[in-house]
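Supplementary notes for students who missed Thursday's class. We covered one full example, reproduced here. Read the sequence, then the structure, then the short commentary at the end.
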Amino acid sequence: MKLAKIELTKKDVYKHGQQRGLSSDLSARYFIHAVLGELFAGRAKPADYQDRGRAVRVLTYLERRPQDLAKMAASPESYEVARWDRCAVKDMPEEFPSGMELRFDLRASPVVTKSSAGEGRNHKGEKKTWSSGTEMDAFLSQAWKSEENDVTREGAYRRWLERQLEGFAELESFSLKQYSLPEMTRRAPDGDGGRRVTTFQNPDVAMTGTLSPKENFVSLLDRGVGHHKAFGYGMMKVRPA
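Structure (token representation):
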């Protein structure tokens, strides 16, 4: 597995989306997702999108050098969007030594999918309901079911991450760096054979801390953590603690 840094020019990203008939109502993350999907045949997930003014820097894990993969998979239009002269690649370890401690940084969408319908109350005592299959912020999922008011966002997200790491690593320390609730867009079937743009609010959370990797930890890095990995979430960056 390789860690790759790819730079995309925003102007070219939007031009590519317009050529593909993407609606201007879609978010920047969707346009980047569309380019990466063509460049690497959908393999550039999880990824981390970093705004650099006129450009977007994408960090992602790939099984091959991005230039080699793109030469096989990319359309000519998507291939031209990438700034290949600014691409950088490094090999990742095949496994991490037992007992090693790693520091991690993660930008994630900590949501859970409700397995059944239910109801609860928010901190104001207002009744809240959800249906089976509802995607919900992990903090709200815990807070609305608790009879106490001591559920914190940091505590809820730590427990969410511990569940994600089960079988792959032990979480040693955790800190919530940043939280926001931006609007996201995606395309969904409209029932008539077409696709429509849907907008929803999505928790955007930056986390950091330390962990102890287990034998198959590399497979978690490759797979990513949590939901919406195709839209720039779930990539865990690690370094020795």
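Commentary. The first strand starts at residue 2 and ends at 9. The radius of gyration is 19 Å. If anything here is unclear, bring it to office hours.
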